[in-house]
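User: Can you predict the 3D structure for this chain?
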Amino acid sequence: MKKKLLAMLFLSLCAISRAQIKNITSKYDLPSAVSETSGLLFYKGKLITHNDSGDAANLYEIDTISGNITRTIQVTNASNVDWEAITQDEDYFYIGDFGNNNGTRDDLKIYRILKSDYDNTTSVSSEVIAFSYEDQQDFTTNPYNHDFDAEAFTVYNNQLIVFTKNWASSTVSAYTIPTEIGNHTAKKIGNYNTQGLITDAAYNPEDNSLLLCGYNKQGNPLLVYLPNITTDKLFDGTIERTDITSSVGIASQIEGLTHIEGNTYFLSRERVNRTVNGIPIQLNQRLFRFDNGSFETLSVAPYSLESIHIYPNPSKDLILISGIDVAQLFITDSHGKNILKKKNSSNQIRIGELTTGVYFLKIIAHDKRQFSKKIIKN
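Assistant: Here is the predicted structure, written as structure tokens:
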């Protein structure tokens, strides 16, 4: 019987793999100190991760080449009730202590830490952003059968977006929370049928997209790609959902996701020891690298990229665009905040009033096709 189950599992994976992306590569096992790696962040060439409930209030800095822990940073005035995610903006790290398996927590919080403190010491203090969901009325214990758990969030347009892990419905809901310290009500901005449980999120400022990761109740890990997002229409675009079982393994509890640059991401998997369809599965905590080419839904293919020119780049003032019929121009900063917007545009835009730095120019053509390019203001 066990051989029959294994054969059935193998056949199901072969069937799934026909629709799989092929460019997720396995890097290495992560240190045992982070066997419950639950959040992941790329910062200054290093990875930052943390465990969920059961560990101290620690952040672990990992060398991306060797996989070794290079620093352990203690958050002195915080506790790890159930840390599930970490994200960042220009000045701060944000740690999501909002894991809520039973649905009973009334102490949901996000710890905010200055990056300058993190850079200079291994012992940092935090400030607290407390919140509650605007539509949660029932706090009766209901383990793994409710829609108010969360393991994913990101900074977008100067606010936090929390993505829930909806056990009951296998969907995801998105809520916005201010980045300021204090007590806040999380405002619901959308819901989407992911057919799975979302465990992390990563914003890509280069194409204004979100990538979500998670797994379904059968143990198949997945990725969900949201292109060209806006806060008020987060789930309105063409959304791609892709099963990645053949790349990372069935029962892989993918918990961490972070953007590096371009279309490149890191994924992390917790240590796994469970049974699926009667088959015992043991997997080590592990890091994966993912080049997101399979998800590119920006409609640049009909254009010859070689024929589109953005110049001069870097520029002090005027940027000219050729090779594309421009309808709208947008410039965003590295955190997705809109800095400039022009409609019915000519093929030029002035950036003289911007501060020196890196930005992203997004162009929408009259036929709705789009193009995105990193620009530098000097």
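The two ends are 67 Å apart (CA to CA). The CA atoms of residues 215 and 221 lie 4 Å apart.
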